[in-house]
């Protein structure tokens, strides 16, 4: 990022109430691939209709997720996540909406977070709406599929942003149902073709409207789920700042676009606007 771009970023963000919208691009430095970034191979995520309507698709998903969720659970926040948490503690960021399900913002210490598309670590019953942890489900699945995860190829494992791992042999995998009512279990994640709960969307719109600027980080804004917040901000006269590798569907709405590494840009912002306390005996950064 050039010095002039950083200057313009500081001009648009310093002293303002900033809401943040993040996408998969912020998590790539944590080893979680994105869907549409430069050099990303084509991905075809499972749809809600496939999951609930076809037991073969559902079996394939759970087999792959039984391996992939562990990879996501082990992922740790990167410099970009940590910088956003610093900016929140410094009073710049008033709230954060994430399209990611990886919980890395929460792990980094971010407090005001709306997980727009849910989180990988919970499972919901589609009949009784009961929730259980993904760890608890993993123990049940392991009991009926002993050694399955270990037998899968872990070296060079490819895992998608929804914790779907590339596992080739899934036909023998056994699924389990809700231990309360026997209903169908589904990750507490909003799938393609599924609707984000209205109350969650309303809360996110309120977060945008209470801010003066919307900062979009690591999202191509390809799907309406995220684009609508940029549109609302721009329509109401708020500045929209986009930091992303490559063009986005919302570039025409933006006051400023920065094509650069999310981690590098956010770290630069945090250093300028929310510097860390100086270590004992060391001069403070200015």
Offer a quick outline of the entry.
The protein is built from 10 helices and 9 strands. The protein is an alpha/beta fold. The protein folds into 2 domains: 1-32 and 76-117 and 196-278, Rossmann fold (3-Layer(aba) Sandwich), CATH 3.40.50.1220; 37-74 and 118-189, SIR2/SIRT2 'Small Domain' (2-Layer Sandwich), CATH 3.30.1600.
Outline the structure in words.
The chain has 2 domains: about 1-30 and about 75-115 and about 195-280, 3-Layer(aba) Sandwich (Rossmann fold); about 35-75 and about 120-190, 2-Layer Sandwich (SIR2/SIRT2 'Small Domain'), CATH 3.30.1600. A 6-stranded parallel sheet has the order 3-2-1-7-8-9, with helices on both faces. Strands 5-4-6 form a 3-stranded antiparallel sheet. A hairpin with a 5-residue loop joins strand 4 (about 120-125) and strand 5 (about 130-135). The chain is built from 10 helices and 9 strands. The chain is elongated and about 55 Å long. The relative contact order is 0.21. Helix 4 packs parallel to helix 10. It has helices spanning about 5-15, 50-55, 55-75, 80-90, 105, 135-145, 150, 200-210, 225-235, 260-275; strands at about 20, 95-100, 115, 120-125, 130-135, 185-190, 215, 240-245, 255-260. The chain is of the alpha/beta class.
Question: How many DSSP helices?
Answer: 10
Principal-axes geometry comes out as elongated
Unreliable residue stretches = 279-286
The averaged pLDDT comes out at: 90
Tally of structural domains:
2
Structural class by sheet pairing and helices: alpha/beta
The biggest beta sheet, please? Answer: 6 strands, parallel
Helical content band: 25-40%
Reported CATH architecture of the largest domain = 3-Layer(aba) Sandwich
What's the CATH H-level homologous superfamily of the largest domain? TPP-binding domain
Radius of gyration, CA atoms, in whole angstroms: 20 Å
CATH level-1 class of the largest domain: Alpha Beta
- Topology pattern, helix = H, strand = E: HEHHHEHEEEHHEHEHEEH
Strand content: 15-25%
């Amino acid at each position: 990022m050039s010095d002039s771009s950083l200057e313009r970023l500081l001009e648009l963000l310093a002293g303002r109430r900033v809401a943040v919208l993040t996408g998969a691009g912020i998590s790539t430095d944590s080893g979680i691939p994105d869907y549409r970034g430069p050099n990303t191979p084509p991905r075809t995520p499972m749809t809600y209709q496939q999951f609930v309507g076809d037991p073969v698709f559902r079996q394939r998903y759970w087999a792959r997720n039984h391996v992939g969720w562990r990879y996501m659970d082990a992922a740790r926040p990167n410099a970009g996540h940590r910088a956003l948490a610093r900016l929140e503690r410094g009073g710049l960021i008033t709230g954060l909406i994430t399209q990611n399900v990886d919980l890395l913002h929460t792990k980094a210490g971010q407090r005001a977070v709306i997980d727009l598309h849910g989180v990988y670590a919970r499972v919901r019953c589609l009949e009784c709406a009961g929730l259980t942890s993904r760890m608890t489900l993993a123990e049940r699945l392991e009991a009926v599929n002993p050694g399955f995860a270990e037998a899968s190829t872990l070296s060079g494992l490819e895992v998608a942003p929804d914790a779907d791992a590339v596992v080739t042999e899934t036909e023998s995998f056994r699924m389990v149902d809700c231990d309360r009512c026997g209903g169908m279990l589904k990750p507490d994640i909003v799938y393609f073709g599924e609707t984000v709960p209205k109350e969650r969307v309303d809360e996110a719109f309120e977060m945008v409207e209470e801010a003066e600027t919307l900062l979009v980080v690591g999202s191509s804004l390809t799907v309406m789920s995220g684009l609508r917040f940029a549109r609302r901000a721009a329509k109401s006269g708020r500045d929209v700042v986009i930091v992303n590798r490559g063009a986005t569907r919302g570039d025409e709405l933006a006051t400023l676009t920065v094509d650069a590494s999310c981690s590098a840009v956010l770290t630069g912002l945090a250093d300028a606007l929310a510097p860390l306390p100086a270590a004992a005996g060391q001069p403070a950064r200015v």
